[in-house]
Amino acid sequence: MLHAVGWGEIENVDTISVTTHPGLPGSLVVGKAVGATLAKRYNKPLYEVNHIYGHIFSLLLERNKTDIEFPMVVLTASGGHNDLYFITEDQNKFHIEHLGKTLDDAAGECFDKVSRMLGGPYPG
Questions:
Q1: Domain ranges in the chain?
Q2: Of all helices (H) and strands (E), which one includes residue 107?
Q3: Phi/psi at 47 (nearest 5 deg)?
Q4: What is the torsional sign of CA 100, 103, 109, 113?
Q5: DSSP labels for 17-32?
Q6: CA-to-CA distance for 96 and 7, rounded, in angstroms?
């Protein structure tokens, strides 16, 4: 897979990160085991990350940090997570405050339920 994305060999990777929360427990356990195995095998540091924060900060992958204005409010809306965050930045450190989340269904769950009600596929 590293070749497919143009990174070449595992030696070109500095660190290995794994999602440890939030998510489905089975997937998290498998991911952590694979990440830990790779980190040990190739002597790379292993970092545990919040996968929702990964979505939020993916906006930095294609932009310079100076293109983004802080403070900012971020809404994450996905299959199982709808959350609102307030993010500030101070001396290159991000501070994340969780403002709230849905009390019942997340956006993706609503799509699934409507799809099922209309006779469509599941997931919707």
A1: 1-61, 69-124
A2: helix 107-117
A3: -120, 135
A4: negative
A5: EEEEESS-HHHHHHHH
A6: 31
Give me the phi and psi of 29, to 5 degrees please: -65, -45
Instruction: Give burial (CB, 10 Å; 0-12/13-18/19+) of 82.
Output: buried
Paired tokens of 3: 């070749």
**Helix, strand or coil, per DSSP, at residue 99:** strand
What residue type is assigned to position 8 of the chain?
G
Q: Which amino acid, residue 17? A: S
Residue 70's alpha-carbon distances to 78, 86, 89, 92, in angstroms, are 23, 9, 6, 11
* Beta strand ranges found along the chain (DSSP E): 16-21, 46-50, 72-77, 82-90, 93-101
**Residue among 45, 38, 33 at smallest CA distance from 9:** 38
pLDDT at 124: 66
pLDDT along the chain (124 residues), means of 10: 78 90 87 95 95 87 82 86 90 92 79 86 76
| Cα distance between residue 107 and residue 123, in whole Å | 12
